[in-house]
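In response to reviewer comment 3 from the previous cycle, which asked for concrete evidence that the modeling workflow produces usable outputs, we include below a single protein chain processed end to end. The sequence was submitted unchanged, and the resulting structure tokens are shown without manual editing.
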Amino acid sequence: MTFRALVAVFAIVGIGRARADEPAPSNDTDGYVPATAASPLTFGGYLDVGFANAQGDGTSFQPNDTRLPADYGVDAFAPAVNSRGDAASTDAGGRFTNGFLPRSAGIGGRPSALINTLSFDVRVEPPGGPLMVFSRIQLLPRFTPRGSESRVVVDQAYGRLTPFDTHEFSISVGKFDSVFGIEYLENQSPLRTGITPSLLARYTTGPSVGAKMFYRRQLAPLWSALSLHLAATNSGTMVESLQLADASLSGRPVASGRVGYELNLPGLLVKLGASALHGPRNDQGAPDVRQRALGADARVGLFGFFLNGEYLKVDEDAGRSGDKITGAGPQFLVSAFHARGLYSQLAYALPWVVPVFGKLTPYARFERRHAWFEGFTPLTVQRITAGFRLDVTDALIIKAEILLNRELSGAPTVDNDVQTVSVVYFW
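The workflow returned the following structure tokens.
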């Protein structure tokens, strides 16, 4: 299979191939935005319909585990069912939790159909002008035993200024995707190769409000390019279930950034990056209670195979005694926290299009996460994810996936594997 055919499959998951003398893909700067059209005003979006079956009671909690807070001794994010990382359930059986939990699909251990996301996009970009304005509103229908927990989310809302025609340089202000690592490029269902995010996505893929800068320098004789992302935002790159994104609780911004190198040879794509984050935790109010993160990422495309991976190191300071959360969630303790982890995913774009069915891409991902709250037992978990993506048409994707979760140390063994299916329509 030619490299050009490989790119045709992976362009929709945000990893387009760019010659060193061509413009940077927009997905490498802003995540998922609709393609530019002749009209200055364009509408787009997608519908993600799912079906999931989580083993056990749909959580990582073990009924006989009496440690408190209950969410400090398990990985509540592990039984994910969709591209948003929602867990099948977060019901701890009445035990105290400190609020470090994902959003819940509310299905527990019952197989259920789901409306994962209904997303509406609006883009305004006057032809020839330097300014683009983009917004994405998402509807998230959810029903739990406590009743309806449906939400309307402003996922993105920003303006981007590209002041120079001869340089790949832009400034964005508003709410936008993270700039840390590479997994944020697959935040949206149509772009993600599989269905669920990695065990590390909670730390790196959260959108936030602030300003960011992107610059890319072509090295045409070397078939290469260098890039730089910098951002100053309210919450950094944590997902909104962990830290509030839409307002600053500390009054200080979180700085994040990534430097990247890419090699675009005929038949071979290599992209390497290093990321960093530093600033106050936005789940408490003190500006001197800090969070720090370092990451490294790599992507390689060759002979129809596409391999990508990421390593992450996260550290968060402890909040002062009595400094409670003031709006980010129900937490009572602002505990010091540390995490180390990695994931690697291999996908293969089959070299043919199956009549009627379309383009098929099987994939497998290995993940490991080691994390601990200070003063509590360290937890090591592992996950193997396998599935396939079928691009039936240019507007219809079918995906199926199995998650095999394993508690290696520090947490009781539970039955929390997940089988999940996603049907994505986009326009």
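The CA atoms of residues 107 and 323 lie 34 Å apart. We consider this sufficient to address the reviewer's concern, and the full set will be provided in the supplementary archive.
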